[in-house]
Amino acid sequence: MDTRKIEEILGNFAIKGKIAEAKPFGSGHINDTFRVTTEEPDGTRHLYTLQRINHAVFRKPQQVMDNIERALDHINQKVGENADVKTLRLVRTREKRNCVRTFEGKWWRVYDFIDGVESYDNVRDPAVAFEAARGFAHFQNLMADLPLPRLHETIPYFHHTPMRYATLEEAAYLDIRNRADEVAAELDFVRQRRHLVAHLLNRYLKGQIPERITHNDTKINNALFDPETKRCVAVVDLDTVMPGLALYDFGDLCRTTCNTADESEPDPDNVHLDLAMFEAVTAGYLDTAKFLVPAEVQELAFSAWLLPFMIGIRFLTDYLQGDTYFKTHYPKQNVDRCRTQFRLALCMEEAREEMQAIVQRCARAVGRN
Ligand code: ADP
Ligand code: GN1
Ligand code: MG
């Protein structure tokens, strides 16, 4: 995108100074993100995050923005001037709105850029995993007393595994790109495990696991770290903050921290489960998520398996549907992503007892059993 276009969009927002630089930023799969530097006449510089909300994914962008605004008002009021945490701050438009819709029908928002922090697509350091888990648990904690009304479901059935499975079967049946034969082994992998898709939802429906306000996209690169203290100082990507199960947040963080390979690793044999990382995530999460009920603690290891399984299903579905949802950078990236997730899930099946033992050990350490 050229600077003139960015200038035109930013012209709607109450930013300080004139654009000095605008660069694509981050490695998110959904939105278009830019880091923008502006400069005032006296040389003072400011940094902003400009984002185009992917409205093919988020069909009601205004609801996304209203959720985010409520969540941030609540969080910012609670954390106050606490210097240890950095929170997202929306920059309003000159008309005091939280986003703009251009005449072409595109939706844009601006945040203050959180500077001086690091984010990682892949981590191998258990101390970072521990901190990330504490960061997301802290986020859940902060959201626990958000006043009613209930937040909008910005993507209905987002982590509804039975629905994700049904959509996969539909995509395989329609097979609009003639790709189903090529991924027969992956489809088979899913079908062999279909009896597990409703497990957490059944416990939720029985009233054993509560609905909470959750982040729903807790991959490690949505946590920002202080490079010196290595503490998680901010949680970003709030588009999917909505009612959900805490276990989904825990599981997604395990998915992105316990895998020794990248998400798009082309050779599944390079995918291994790092149990030291699982232990660190579990310990960090239990350290801060004091609100968990016993059934949630019991299902931590299961949710660590469920998320790679479910997100693998989503990558596979997207491949069958022609790669229209996740950004891809080469033709079969969604197949690589899917195989990586399924290999990780398989490793977790093989390590099931060890993972349960780790959960019990961590729970005992914080007096939870
Ligand atoms: P996507 O939905 O496409 O993943 P994100 O909101 O996660 O978009 O943004 C992409 C990446 O940009 C994040 O993973 C994070 O590393 C970085 N990022 C997003 N917002 C900010 C911000 N306000 N300050 C600093 N970095 C940010
Ligand atoms: C997307 O937006 P990003 O890149 O943080 C996706 C997540 C997936 C993840 C897989 C709104 O996350 O659900 O788990 O890719 N976000 C949405 O890497 O679908
Ligand atoms: Mg993101």
Task: Describe it.
The chain is globular. 43% of the residues lie in helices and 13% in strands. Helix 4 runs parallel beside helix 10, helix 7 (246-257) packs antiparallel against helix 8 and helix 7 (246-257) crosses helix 10 (300-320). The mean pLDDT is 97. The longest helix has 21 residues, at 300-320. The strands form three sheets. Strands 1, 2, 3, 4, 5 and 6 form a six-stranded antiparallel beta sheet that branches. The protein has 369 residues and is an alpha+beta fold. The protein is built from twelve helices and ten strands. The N and C termini lie far apart (54 Å). Bound molecules: adenosine-5'-diphosphate (ADP), 2-acetamido-2-deoxy-1-O-phosphono-alpha-D-glucopyranose and magnesium ion (MG). Magnesium ion binds next to loops. Magnesium ion (MG) binds next to loops.
**Ends: how far apart?**
54 Å
| Regions with little confidence, pLDDT below 50 for 5+ residues | none
Please report the total strand number as a whole number.
Answer: 10
- Overall mean pLDDT stands at 97
Task: Describe this structure in a few short sentences.
This protein has 369 residues and is α+β, with helices and mostly antiparallel strands. The chain has helices at residues 3-10, 61-79, 126-143, 161-174, 184-191, 199-205, 246-257, 275-288, 294-298, 300-320, 333-350, 352-365, and strands spanning 18-24, 32-39, 45-53, 90-91, 100-101, 107-112, 212-214, 223-225, 232-235, 242-244.
Topology:
Elements lengths: L2 H8 L7 E7 L7 E8 L5 E9 L7 H19 L10 E2 L8 E2 L5 E6 L13 H18 L17 H14 L9 H8 L7 H7 L6 E3 L8 E3 L6 E4 L6 E3 L1 H12 L17 H14 L5 H5 L1 H21 L12 H18 L1 H14 L4
Helix pairs in contact: 3-7, 3-8, 4-10, 7-8, 7-10, 8-12, 10-11
Bound molecules: adenosine-5'-diphosphate, 2-acetamido-2-deoxy-1-O-phosphono-alpha-D-glucopyranose and magnesium ion (MG).
Adenosine-5'-diphosphate binds next to loops.
